[in-house]
Amino acid sequence: MAGEGVRYRRVVLKLSGQALAGTGEKGLDLGVVRLIAEAIRRLVGLGVQTTVVVGGGNIWRGATGEASGMDRATADYMGMLATAINALALQDQLEKLGVDTRVQTAIEMRAIAEPYIRRRAIRHLEKGRVVIFACGTGNPYFSTDTAAALRAAEIDAEVILMAKRGVDGVYSADPRLVPEARKYDTLEYMDVVKQRLGVMDATAASLCRENGIPIIVFNLDDPENMIRAVQGEKVGTFIGDVAPRDRQAEQ
């Protein structure tokens, strides 16, 4: 059971590969991974059943390979392998902190991780273990954002915590390039698609909408934000079924 003051009992934390790279664009910054692991340890300590979906863009991007003339499916499979590397790094840091962790992959690699099995994942969560989902959906042409939405629906997660680096929510444009860009406190699911806000792809947004799974987009530069989010504090941007009064406040 979630502890007192915790709004969400079961969550999916979506980490991009860039989040694990720290200030660099490529590779792993183990210091940053350790900070993220510490925040996850605190979530578990609050009684929150925690899963993580990791990206792989800090190691390889399928879109980059395709742009260079590589077969799209091959490039995407390489990206899935990159997510497995990130998942193992996060698992290592979590277990150094005493957090029982399992990595489950959508592509079987039994020597290093479990295959993804929905019921087994849920059982791990019930036992207080963190489950890291790697290799996306196991299919090319689908993003790890879509994998996060799919896994959230499958395990009955109550929210997706979408961690971003260097930005504290969703803006009308990239605030690093457009200083006058407007930050949104709340958004409807399809606003993300219609306004092409770049938070997630249309498939992921649609899956969340169909299954009523809210998304909280927050700044990972302060890992404390994920604690605030599960406690129900206003952090970053909330995407979901927005009450009329909230929509009026946005206008």
Architecture blueprint of SSEs:
Layout: E1 10-15, H1 17-20, H2 30-45, E2 49-54, H3 62-67, H4 72-96, E3 101-105, E4 114-115, H5 118-126, E5 130-134, H6 144-154, E6 159-164, E7 170-171, E8 183-184, E9 186-187, H7 189-194, H8 202-211, E10 215-219, H9 224-230, E11 237-239, H10 244-250
Parallel strand pairs: 1-2, 1-6, 2-5, 3-4, 3-5, 6-10, 9-11
Antiparallel strand pairs: 7-8, 10-11
Helix pairs in contact: 2-4, 2-9, 6-8
Q: List low-confidence stretches.
A: 243-249
Mean pLDDT, all residues: 90
Share of residues in strands: 15-25%
Structural class based on helices, strands and sheet pairing: alpha/beta
Could you say what the CATH topology is called? Carbamate kinase
CATH homologous superfamily, by name?
Acetylglutamate kinase-like
* Strand order, largest beta sheet: 4-3-5-2-1-6-10-11-9
Structurally, the number of domains stands at 1
Please compute the radius of gyration using only Cα atoms. 17 Å
Question: How does the overall form come out from the CA principal axes?
Answer: globular
Helix count from the secondary structure assignment: 10
**What is the CATH C level class, in words?**
Alpha Beta
Distance between the termini: 38 Å
The main sheet comes to:
9 strands, mixed
